[in-house]
Structure formats: C-alpha cells, structure tokens
Design goal:
With about 525 residues, this protein is of the alpha+beta class. It has helices spanning about 5-10, 15-30, 45, 55-60, 65-75, 80-90, 105, 110-130, 140-155, 270-290, 355-370, 375, 385-425, 435-445, 455-470, 475-485, 485-505, 515-520; strands at about 95-100, 160, 180, 200, 205, 210-220, 230-235, 245-250, 295, 330-335, 445-450. The strands form 4 sheets. The protein has a 4-stranded antiparallel β-sheet with strand order 4-5-6-7, with no helix packed on it. The longest helix has about 40 residues, at about 385-425.
C-alpha cells in the first residue's frame, strides 16, 4: 500500500476498500489476452475505443449509406470500377454455361441414354436462355442477366430475383427472370425499430424462429421522385403449397442473424475515396504545372481591365465575371496591375513518388478484396513465378464466387426451368414430381465459366497433358480449364476435320485411329 492509499484509508476507509477491490479486479482482467489485444492499460490501446453492437446496429442500420458510397465510387473512382469489373469478368465473363450432369446410376440409365438426355436438356435450355424472352424486361438473355446480377451484388451488397410466370408468343416456356435492385426491398422502420413491425427490417420479414419468410418490395425506387405514395408488395420467399421459390436473394453473410448484404467495397470505402482525391489533386497539379504562362507587371492602367495580349479568347473563359482570378492557358500572356506580383510556385509535378505510393495502397486494397494488386492493376511486371502466383491466388477467389453464383442463382433457375419443361412434356423424366431424390438426380448440373488465362500457354498445356497421363484429371476437365470448351464436341469435330483434310489430300495433324480404320475399310 503506497502513501496515497494510506492517506485515503485514514480519512475514508470505504473508499480505500473500493480502490483495493478495483485494483484486484484490474489484475484479473489483465491476464492472457488482457495483456495483449484486450489490454486496457497499455498506452497503445488507450485510444482504441470500441463498442460491442448487434448485427442490426453494426450492419443493418449502416447499409443504406454504405450502398450509396459504394455506387458513387463505382461511378467516379477508376480503381473501384476496375476492381468490380475485374471480378465480374473473371467470375462470370460471357456467362456460366450449363453442363447437365444427370445421376445415371441412381436413375438406372446407361451412359449413352444419359448423354442423349443431357444433350436434349441443354438444347431446350439454350432455346430459353439465349433469348431475351427469359428476361421480364426483354432486355437481356440469361447469360447477360448473370453478369448484371453479379455486378449489382458486388456494388450494392445484395440483389433480388423474382421468378414470375408470363406466357409470350413464340416461346414455349413461361418462366421469367426479374431482377430487383436492393434499394427497392425496404421498410419504413429501417432506422427505428420502435415503430412498425419489429419482425421486418430493411424489407426482410422473419418469423418467431428467425426464418426469413417474406420480402417487402417497393413499386419503385425509393430515391425516385413521385407525387404518389410508394406502395410496397409483400412477396413470400416460398410458395405455401408448392414450396417453389418465389424470390432469390443473392447475399454473402458476415454474421449470424444478418438479413441484408454489405457491399464488397465497404472495408475500403474511405481508402479508395482518399486515393481518388489524391489522384485528382496530383492530376490537377500536373496540368497547372504544364501550363506555361508569362506574366508582365506594368504601372500603366489598361483601362478596361482586360488582357489584350492574352491568348485565351473571351468566349472561352470560364470565370470571366470574377475579377479576382486569372485564367491560365498554354503559352498565354497576362498583364498585371500596379503593385501586383506573381509568386512562382514549384509544385514539382509530376510527383516521382506517386506511382510507388498508389501501388502500396493498392496492395492493401487488393488484400481486402482478395485481388492481388498485379491483377487489380493489370500490371504483370514481375517474374513468371510471381505473376503466376498472383493469378492462382486470384483464381481461388474467382472459383469460390463462381460456385456461390452457380448455387445461388443459376442452379435454382435451372431447376425451375426443368420443372416447367417436364410438366409440359418437352422433357421426359419419370418420377420427377414424385420423389425428391429422383428430382435431385435429374437436376444435377455443372456451370462452366471463362477459363484462367495462361502466362505461358506451352507450359500450361504440357502440365495439363501430364496430369491427364497420370490420371490426376480428365480430358474434359482440362478442356474446360484451358479454354472453357467441351471435349466431346471437340472430339467429334476433330474427326470430321481430319476426314476433310484427308479427302482433300492434305497432310493430317495427329493421326486419328477412327479415321485410319475407316480408310483401311475403304481400301
């Protein structure tokens, strides 16, 4: 006990006892993580003020502002635009293509029968998917809608998709896709749970068990100006009788009990905005520094205050009404009045450290977005190994998000299409509507997108050849990985190509055993 404690104990024993109790409690608290990340005594942690909030306080209430700023960055910050479009291009590209994968063993089908069934389904699906009739707005086909939905999810945090039924002339299928922007799913009690229905937050309604049961959709965007009231429509997530999904919600969860998604740029919004401001300032400084102008001081009054020798025409001046400014231009001459002087500035632009600083910041932004800065900036100036490592790291994320998109958007829509095709008798699938296991066996599918680029195609092909020879993979899988094609279709086409070359008397490439046997039979 020090002299302060002794003094306090002499005059106020109760206060002294409380001081000793608090000291013991603080000793208990500063153990384990209390001496490190949870320390309350270290000076380095003293200014770190945190607060433990619920998912509603930390996420839900901040989503509208995050969404606005994320879209503003996309529209005005080149780095943000490039990051989202890079992800869209590599994950979706021209669209994830259907590769039907029926479970032939469970359904008792032979390999030939399964191939015929899959080919027919893919042909029927493309009839619908490649037409703009699949879109409720008749603006995009199914593959273009994939890119739109994915980009909207990246920018806004989530996106919604209705699956209405609407017959149209010339199209045998009535299933339609209607994308709903995230802002239209809202509720009056976004910021104040003391009013309205506490089970409805940000337009998402849950029941007593926390299950999402419905969405509340505005008839128009809440930011659109209109005199009449913006009414909302309640859409149940699944049909009560059929269990059919009425609406798809593309969202990536961060915390349990979360109802709405956070924009991808949320962790780097401040950094990207400041970097955009810095880039604009550097650009303006470089432009001003490049405008070589001559200033002449004179004691004589020009009379009207104009610049008779200025090379900027009066009609081109943007601030002619302001007498306190002088407009600069390349190679211009400006007369100054009495007692007016120009203090020459030396901005030193372009800044030699600009590129290294921006690259350093892009490394941090890329780490947060899971995009290596080489891929983010499209700058592959390092060694082959370093560049390939950056591509491989980026493709881990691209493949993960592609699988997420396929499971959350493409596959549910395909299953709805398949159900309609079977119900209308265009596809034969016995037992599909009776047994859920049979339905799952018929609904199996893969969704193939753009392949990973190759820095050295020869090395990539040699590696693929060795993987196939050693049984680590298949020719079909390598065909998809290298070029995104179909090996069986390529094989069939190659047979016809080799036959045509031989018939024309041209030297064939790699000999084809099937072609050779046909020629031997003919001789």
């Amino acid at each position: 006990m020090n002299w302060i404690d002794k003094t306090v104990a002499y005059f106020n024993p109760a206060k002294a006892l409380k001081r000793e109790r608090d000291r013991q409690l603080l000793t208990v608290m500063n153990r384990g993580y209390g001496n490190h990340g949870a320390s309350s005594r270290k000076s380095s942690m003293a200014g770190w003020v945190t607060q433990n909030g619920s998912v509603i306080d930390d996420i839900e209430k901040n989503i509208p502002k995050l969404r606005e700023r994320s879209r503003d960055l996309f529209m005005g910050a080149p780095l943000a635009t490039g990051a989202l479009k890079t992800m869209r291009t590599n994950v979706i590209g021209s669209g994830l293509r259907l590769n039907a994968q029926v479970d032939a063993d469970y359904l008792g089908m032979t390999t030939e029968e399964a191939d015929i069934w899959e080919t027919k389904v893919e042909r029927e699906f493309n009839l619908w998917a490649e037409s703009i009739h699949c879109d409720m707005q008749r603006m995009n086909n199914f593959y273009q809608l994939q890119g739109l939905a994915f980009l909207s999810w990246l920018m806004s945090g989530d996106v919604f998709c209705l699956l209405p039924i609407k017959p149209r002339a010339g199209m045998p299928y009535d299933l339609r896709i209607q994308l709903i922007e995230s802002d239209r799913v809202n509720s009056p009690d976004v910021l104040d749970l003391s009013h309205g229905n506490p089970k409805v937050l940000n337009g998402v309604e849950i029941d007593g068990d926390g299950e999402v049961i419905a969405y509340h959709i505005s008839e128009r965007h809440p930011g659109a100006y209109a005199l009449e009231q913006n009414k909302r429509v309640r859409i149940e997530k699944f049909g009560r009788n059929t269990g059919r999904p009425n609406i798809l919600h593309l969202i990536e969860m961060e915390r349990p009990e979360q109802r709405r998604g956070v924009p991808l740029l949320a962790p780097v919004i401040e950094t990207m905005k400041q970097l955009a401001r810095y880039s604009d300032a550097e650009l303006m400084a470089a432009v001003v520094n490049a405008l070589y102008s001559v200033f002449i001081t004179s004691e004589a009054d020009s009379g009207d205050g104009s610049d008779p020798f200025s090379s900027i025409p009066e009609e081109d001046e943007v601030d002619s009404d302001n007498d306190t400014t002088i407009e600069l231009g390349p190679g211009t001459v400006h007369f100054l009045g009495e007692n007016e002087k120009i203090q020459e500035a030396t901005p030193g632009r372009p800044n030699a450290n600009f590129d290294s600083f921006v690259t350093s910041m892009c490394r941090q932004i890329g780490a947060a977005l899971e995009i290596p800065y080489e891929v983010l900036l499209k700058n592959f100036t390092s060694s082959y190994s370093a560049s390939r490592g950056a591509l491989l790291e980026a493709w881990k994320m691209f493949k993960m998000r592609r699988q997420w998109m396929a499971e959350g958007f493409c596959q549910p829509i395909y299953e709805e299409f398949l159900s309609e095709a079977i119900a209308k008798g265009r596809i034969d699938a016995p037992g599909y509507f009776i047994d859920p296991m049979i339905r799952k066996a018929y609904s199996g599918a893969e969704w193939n997108g753009p392949s990973q680029g190759q820095l050295d195609p020869l090395k990539e092909v040699n590696a693929a050849e060795k993987r196939v020879e050693n049984g680590f993979t298949t020719r079909s899988a390598e065909t998809v990985a290298l070029g995104g094609g179909d090996w069986f279709r390529n094989h069939s086409l190659r047979i016809r190509e080799e036959q045509a070359r031989r018939e024309a008397g041209m030297a064939s490439g790699v000999p084809d055993q099937t072609v050779e046997s046909d020629e031997e039979d003919e001789t």
